[in-house]
Amino acid sequence: MTTTKTFRVGGHTVEVSRPEKVLFPGDGITKADLAAYYRTVAQRMLPHLRGRPLMLERHPDGIDGPAFMQKAVSDHFPDWIHRAELPKEDGTVTYAVCDDTATLLYLAGQACVTPHRFLSKADRPDHPDRLVFDLDPSGDDFEPVRTAALGLRELLEELDLPSLVMTTGSRGLHVVVALDRRAPFDEVRGFAHDAAELLASRHPDELTTEPRKKARRGRLYLDVQRNAYAQTAVAPYAVRALPGAPIAAPLAWTDVTDPDLTARRWTIGTAEDLLKDNPWRNPPRPRSLTTASRSLRAMGRP
Hints:
Elements: E1 4-9, E2 12-17, E3 22-24, E4 29-30, H1 31-45, E5 54-58, E6 68-70, E7 82-88, E8 91-97, H2 101-109, E9 112-118, E10 130-136, H3 143-158, E11 164-167, E12 173-178, H4 185-202, E13 207-208, H5 213-216, E14 220-223, E15 232-234, E16 250-251, H6 253-256, H7 271-274, H8 290-298
Parallel strand pairs: 13-14
Antiparallel strand pairs: 1-2, 3-4, 5-6, 5-9, 7-8, 9-15, 10-12, 10-14, 11-12, 11-16
């Protein structure tokens, strides 16, 4: 007998089938638990999703089973879920856009554990409003990640680019800069690459921009490859498909100075503590890269 759990939200009825299905076997977290979490964080999470095409990381048999990344909206998705049809090399893709709580719950009911968002919005998909540096450590020691994040923040402040920081819920941190959408992706990625190169040149024994793992030689990788059309980054407050159900958590910069910080500090089980404060309550205004690019050149980028 198939069971369902019904949510009535925003004028829509969302039915989550097999709500008792365990998605995180080691923790006993079910599909109903996942949906309940996303309903709890929706008000905080939706401003970071609205208007953005999504890549859906789905785990229909739980995180220990086969998973897949879904770009195109399935035919059975309700008509009220917003969509964005965007070009690709040989045609178009119609992505889901999560603009409301009902959509977030529906995606959870589809065993979408983790929504990954575009760094641009659907109305101007080639002009990002977010620049992301992904700080990817070579090992399990989180100290290099904290140190690199603080160093990157200092460099960005030299360039008059205020930044936000978040855990990925997996291994590292994301440092995020809000942009005014004037520059296309190629320009944004070029700037991010040059900034990362400059920071790595200041700390050559600790940091690298080398994408090949063998060439990193234990150094932390400053990854800027997400800054490209149709690439995605994990959404703030998204659950990761890892034991313990860790959360990609927005931080205050003071959190990064805590030696006990890890990428998986917050989980579904500790979400209540995470939601006590909103470190991104007053985000920096979006910035142009024009002046920052001139300043970066003046610093003598590598």
